[in-house]
Amino acid sequence: MNKTRSLIALATVAALSGVGVGAWWLGMKQGRGDTTSATAQQAVSTSALDDPSQWTIPQGEAATRRHIRDALKAGDVDPVTGRRILNYHDPMVPGKNFDTPAKSPFMDMMLVPRYVGSNAADTSSVSVSPRIQQNLGLRTAPVVEGALVSEVTAVGNVAWNERERVELSSRAMGFVEKLHVKAALDRVAAGAPLAELYVPDWVSAQEEYLALARLSGPGIEALQDAARQRMRQAGMTTAQIERAVASGRVQSRFTITAPIAGIVSELLVREGATVMPGATLMRLQGTRTVWAEGAVPESQAALLQPGARVRTTSPGAPGQTFEGQVQALLPEVDAVTRTIRARVELANPQGRLVPGMLVSMRLALPKTAASLLVPSDAVIHTGRRSVVMVAEDGGRFRPVEVTAGLEVGGQTEISAGLQLGQRVVLSGQFLIDSEASLRGLEARLNQEPATTPTPTQQRYTTDAVIDALSGDTVTLTHPPIPALKWPQMQMGFQLPPRSEQPRDLKAGDRLKIEFEMQDGQVPRITSLQRVAPGIGK
Fold first, then answer.
1. Which of 190-204, 290-304, 390-404, 490-504 has the highest mean pLDDT?
2. In the chain, what is the straight-line distance between the N-terminal and C-terminal CA atoms, in Å?
3. Given this model, what pLDDT does residue 366 score?
4. Which of 11, 188, 335, 467 is the most exposed place for a label (fewest CB within 10 A)?
């Protein structure tokens, strides 16, 4: 019996010991689990505090309520995060910032704070991770200083130089007895015979002079001089007259020679033809120089000047370069291509260039001063302005408006907006712009100044009390506005011009305001007046 009682006592003690040990083990396990969970939560909380831009909207609203309770505003240091407050914004309506914590004027929610140094603080730039940059194939190039290679290229056609054209006409009635050139475009040398004419009036004038030349006696010299004058009046040249006087014989045929070397551009007579005084026999065209007329964009033509050097090549004369200079910019603009024709005079010593031949011209511009240069691919022309995307430290990108100048050879002059040594994006600018749009940032390539509201926009009136003033923005507390379905709230308004404001506005003043809504911005006060305390209650 005693033995049985001893065994029961031992079993009871063992059971109680097992329960105690189990409870101790379970308690330790739970304690470790709670400690691990608390550590994880603390790590998450610490991570969130490290970068408030990672907060959720409820966390941001909670921070704003805490700022209102602790009377914090933009510029103060948040004791919880240890960061300076930059501003407040509505995540659903990006682009408008506020200096004081309050309820959003656009949504039924609180504003969310931004802090200096956080990833979301700078709304004028966008951050892109190195991995995404590699996936997008982003390329950048530095802003350099230099002078553009001042040169304009143009394509043109060759034409005859009209200043080297000569027209041969008949000086008296005669007959074409022989032609030394048989067809148009025949080449002739300077002084080469072209045609032989028989002119009866010239023959009779010579016979009269030669008859008087054989006589002698008083007064005969006067008659001889009169006969010479008659030959000149008949149309004979000085050389023809001297030839007749020197030979002492009648020159029955008169040879017309080429005054210049070139080609016969037009042949208007044939052998046996009768020609009248003033009739055109043929036209000669000199080939020593030719014209090339190239189409130059009107934006670049303004930089050209007559006398500028030109180097020209042609498929019709491979391996040969023709030198010349700009003779004139023709006063006519092609309405379709918006180009001006530049007339260039080219040396043509071997006669290789002929009308209709295609030429490529490189026209030298006046030398420009050194300026900042960027690749032309980096400049985006939006229609109203020119923008480049600047790459900054930390994988951030910012659009910058620039003043673009001359563009030559893939390089563009920048006269304002950039600094030497900055890097600009060459590819992927619009992908960065899309990323900024998705994040609701102000860093947009096509961001334009907001347009002013139309005067016909609906306006609303309400009483209000000034809570804070900051620049051109005032924070007011107003009663419910049924027309807008607004409850009583504190929100920001844009003040009218200072000339339309009462003097010495301060916090606590009671106002009567009229305002109108602005798309994407705080309401704009169109008129306001201070009211005495107690009125409007």
1. 190-204
2. 95
3. 64
4. 335
Q: How far apart are CA 285 and CA 169, in angstroms?
A: 15
Check residue 10 and give left, alpha or beta (phi > 0: left; psi -120 to 50: alpha): alpha
Does an H or E element contain 241, and which?
helix 238-247
- Phi and psi at 73, nearest 5°, equal -150, 180
CB atoms within 10 A of CB 174: 24
3-state secondary structure of 403: strand
Three-state SS for 450-477 is CCCCCCCCCEEEEEEEEEEEECCEEEEE
Check residue 96 and give its pLDDT. 74
CA nearest to 387, candidates 451, 127, 122, 397: 397
Segment 285-299 shows an average pLDDT of 88
Eight-state DSSP code of residue 481: B
User: Which tens digit of pLDDT belongs to each residue from 383-439?
Assistant: 677 888 888 877 777 888 888 887 777 888 888 888 888 888 887 666 766 655 545
DSSP per residue over 42-57, as a string?
HHHHHHHHH-GGG--H
pLDDT at residue number 456: 56
Tokens of residue 228, six digits: 């010479």
How far is Cα of residue 262 from the mean position of the Cα atoms in its chain? Answer: 48
Residue with tokens 């959003």: 104
Sheet hosting strand 165-169, strand order edge to edge? 165-169, 280-286, 262-267, 187-188
